[in-house]
């Protein structure tokens, strides 16, 4: 019992949070480049404040990030040293199509990822590729309005066809859209959406989501056509909602909140807009323009597996309940009095991972893949330059234990686990460097100062042991 022999242990990153090199190799500008740190970040991420160019008053952490653009060989060698079986990374769309609507891709960008994939295979690391991780060429936003425009489906299709063709034999695991449900909470980040005063934002978000859902189904179709070995997954920012109390009103609220997230992967995995979603949209007065062909393609090309991120559980309450709020992944949630929180207020709940896994597996009966999980924390190297991150080890250990329980006790099928930010990178939510998730420390601070030197944290050695023992040795005793 325990983890299956071919279990895919590894780590995850996203192009915009680690690559840097924003203007190198023919890369075009993207939404993720022009999101600054500081108090205006949230307004930009949510599309309330339009920022489509750099402004000298602000600092933009994604421009250089941790410069994986030039360090990738060193970084992959470190992943290999930990024994990674897989490495989840994302493609920067504007490296492949700098404007997004060209006919011919940028060879330098294509070669860059080819080099990365070949480097991975040198160490028997299977790449797991997110086609878009919060990433959209700025030209597509300026010219077409991002995913609100149906034409985006065609641009995305061209991107996918290019990737599947070029990387055939090098990549077989693909994710179409990172945390697709985040379009509701972070529409500029998730879909390049900005809003004019007085616009019906929900209408625009759900229409854009429909375009992404059709694009995802088309991608799944072509991935399978180009290479039947390809496995395509959806990707949800998951975490089941708990009712704040056993008051049926709270229970109902938690069900509604779960459905708000499930909607996206219900479509991607079951191939239909669920009845509750149709009713919900009608009630809100939202009318989605969709064709018969859209619905046919969604129906015919469902995903092979369900991938998700999980950091913390969530709580829902009816208006009658008197609750306190705390921070969570990209948006606040209700504070759960039974849980401790991270330094950023995210609630720590390993059993919540087992609950979420069971909920997803019960619902879809497709293999799961945990593609993000981890603890964002402040790391302070000691006098020898080592980060003794026992807090991170404790978090990860408890979550891996919960995964094991879900597999052993509940029969959930899990393909792999890629913990988030296996190397320190820029935080998506805050833009900070000091919110670190990595096994590998990167010398860089919030203002972009530092040598970029990489160093192994205590958790590096711990995770190496976890992988070598296929999840059996979770304690630090033998380090
Ligand atoms: C997920 C994203 O929402 O959470 C990642 O897919 C992100 O891009 C991660 O970095 C952790 O969030 P944060 O805000 O701590 O970086």
TrEMBL record:
InterPro entries for this protein: GH, GH_1_N_CS, Glyco_hydro_1, Glyco_hydro_1_AS
Swiss-Prot/TrEMBL GO biological process terms: carbohydrate catabolic process
Keywords: Glycosidase, Hydrolase
GO cellular component labels: cytosol
Keyword Membrane belongs to the record: no
GO molecular function: beta-glucosidase activity
Entries under SUPFAM superfamilies matching the protein: (Trans)glycosidases
Taxonomy, superkingdom: Bacteria
Active site, UniProt feature: 372
Family per similarity comment: Belongs to the glycosyl hydrolase 1 family.
PANTHER family: 6-PHOSPHO-BETA-GLUCOSIDASE, GLYCOSYL HYDROLASE
Protein's UniProt name: 6-phospho-beta-glucosidase
